[in-house]
Amino acid sequence: MMAWTEHLSLRRLLAADAASCALMGAALLAAPQALGGWTGLPPALLSGAGLALLPVAAFMALLARGGAVPRWGLAVVLGGNALWVVASLMLPLLRLVAPNALGWSFLLGQAGFVAALAWLEGAAARARPALA
């Protein structure tokens, strides 16, 4: 019997990660003032995060398209996702930002999504260790 993780495609997960980064980046860049007003997060932080996500999305899309995913490329993705989750949680916990209830929901929701995606990417890589 095969584990469910053996059915995961690292390429599809990287493509989904790239798409989510691109969509989030575009949304953060398109409306940082509105999002900041709704979440209590600084618009400059939101637009900076949006700007940072676009090259990340391009890198992930490139990894999803090529031949074998290089180990270093997957390590960069997983490390970046881990840093994103930690930063998302530490900024308010260290009182560097003061989100309202919707802001906390936003931070926790996107951090949870990124953490789950990173976990799935790691599981897919372990299930099919055909990395370059």
TrEMBL record:
What are the UniProt keywords, alphabetically? Membrane, Transmembrane, Transmembrane helix
Residue ranges annotated as transmembrane are 40-62, 74-95, 101-120
**What's the protein called, per UniProt?**
Uncharacterized protein
Q: Which organism is it from?
A: Teichococcus aestuarii
